[in-house]
Structures are given as C-alpha cells and as structure tokens.
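Hi, does anyone understand the following?
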Amino acid sequence: MKDYLEIANDPILWIMAIPAVAMVGIQAYLFSKRAIKASETTSLTKEQCKKAFKVGAVSAIGPSLSVFVVMLGMMAVIGGPITWLRLSFIGAAPTELTASTIGAKAMGVEFGSPEYDVTAFASSVWTMTLNGCGWLLFCGLFTNKLDKLQDKIAGGDTALMGQICGAAILGTASYLVMSNSKAGIDRFVAALVSAIVMVILDKVSDKAPKLKEYNLGISMIIGMFIAVLV
C-alpha cells in the first residue's frame, strides 16, 4: 500500500474540499452584504460600518494565528485537504487536533508517530467529522428554543444572565487549568498578558483616540504570540 500521505494529499480530496470551503467564503460575503444593507435601516453611517469591519478584521488576526500554527502541524500528519476543510468549517484548532489524536489512539497508535498509517488517518478523519456533527445538530434543532431556556434560568434579567455566563466561562477556564496543568498555565499566561496589554493600550488610547478601536485586536494578537512562545 502506498504511503498514506499520498492518499491524504490526493487531488481528489482537494477537489472535494474546494466546494465546501468556497461555501464558507460565499456565506461570509452574503452576511457582510446583508449587514451593510441592514445598516441603512439604522442610524449607522457607511463610515461607521467600514470602521466596524476594520476593527473586526484586526480582532480576528489573533485567533487566526493560533489556528495557523496548529494547521501547520496537522497538515504534516493528515495532509492539506482535510486540514483546510476542517479548520475552515470549525476554526477551533485545539478541538480538531484533539479529535484527530483520539482517532489515532482508537487504532492503537500515536498521532503523527511512525506507526500512523492510512487506517489511523481514516479513523482521525471520521472522529473529527463525527465530533462536529453533535453541535451542528444541537444548533439546528435547539437554537430557536434557547430564548425560552434563558427566560426560565434568568427570568428575563439580562444582568443576571451575564453573571451566569461569566461564571460558566470562569468554571470552564478553571477546569482547563486544573485538568491539564501545562496547557492550562500556558493559556492563563497568554490571557493574563492580553489583559495587561489591554489595560495599557486603554491608557495610551486616551491620548491617541484612533488607537482605541484596535485595542482588543492588538491585545489578542500579542496574547496569541505569547501562547505560541510558551
């Protein structure tokens, strides 16, 4: 049997991945177009819309860098087409890396080890695919019912709902730190650096107001660099 990477990078897989990834690009274009059109019904000006897109673009650089770093590692093991497809759809690089690792372990091998073969590759792809099905089904079936759940939990109190969400985020972060000390500490350090940079930039932007709208993006980019370095 030929080397599994020849199969993982086969032109047929690229051809199969292109329409799916293109659909993501089309959706992004349509959402942007509709957002601009909807702004006409509000008090937003075209200049404000352009500024919002610029802020969003800068803020997206930081998370994109973390995905890019993981993408390079995944491409070396499971090939370009599947990596491109999965990270274009999901975007949660650690989730996809974990799923592909679990798929490999199900075949009794380590992800990226010399024993990793076409069977382990297929298992990784199936695991990533099935892992993404759950939340897609949940979103499709229950998103329209979440408002009712929110009302039952918080009784329509938006402030209370914000506190509940904040507590959930803190709980998740604490779990990540305690369950995987090295990775958790790395994430904590990156988040702490981002927060410190955000505070500093907030002070600096008092004298340079044009910088203020990019504070979040810049702090996230620095935090991502720290996460990669540590």
